[in-house]
């Protein structure tokens, strides 16, 4: 984008920021800084409990516990990059798991045929909620906070009405044995491999495709995105639909891992995922974010909870620690954005006024 100056001079905004080397740029990223914090936490707990915490079996448990949140985090990262929010993912996870469990129970059987139908039903249920959220946000112009807060209540309420508030525990054995408790190469949890595939695809799409570029553009400036031809409404609907579909996938993964719908067990899921995404460097103001940073952010609460339990510290301190890190992360993001804005403004005026006239 260029600013036309009379009579013929132009200033290209894209060249205002000074070029910075890859190493320095990496060191400045919030995701890298949070990775250093994560490594410091792991080091401290490993020193305090070397015989229990610093063991592969324990790290495997941490990875497995973070896997479902990682699937949700990919969708949430895309949503927050657009300067939106999705508070409904925990309830959509529960609703999708409930509908899937009922369908599989009515079909009967324990084989992959029934399980495959259950997976499709769960993802389809989540997709339907995501499309509803996206349509109301993009077309009806209702703020994302209100829409997803409403769908949070509706999805959870419908799940409780359908089940009478009683968890469904009839889950095909193939799901629990092959996915919930299954391993790849004998040591890596299957559920974590599935989450890794979702994370890798999400990272590639965000970094190297038009869909990812359009997502960042919408978050940076919706008005500017419309002016350059991005179909913003369609993009938002796709993003919220993706978030819903991934919540549905997380629902079937949760069903596989716990062998129950766990209706009352997801009350903090949406807040934990949002905190992880923001801690990982995705800006609540939109336009900035990475999937890798989201994954790093997810492991902060997972490691804290595990380390506190092993060292005999009340797990409630996890909420205090994560809350503090979240506030610090948002504050750092605000400082970074303010500094970038000041730098761009000063560079622009220097270019406009010319040498010797910057005062």
From TrEMBL:
Cellular component terms (Gene Ontology): plasma membrane
InterPro entries per record: ABC_transp_permease
Keywords, sorted A to Z: Cell membrane, Membrane, Transmembrane, Transmembrane helix
Superkingdom of the source species: Bacteria
Localization terms from the record: Cell membrane
Membrane topology: Multi-pass membrane protein
GO molecular function: transmembrane transporter activity
Coiled-coil features, chain-numbered ranges: none
TM regions (residue ranges): 31-49, 61-81, 87-104, 111-132, 144-163, 184-208, 271-304, 316-332
Pfam families attached to this UniProt entry: BPD_transp_2
Protein name according to UniProt: ABC transporter permease
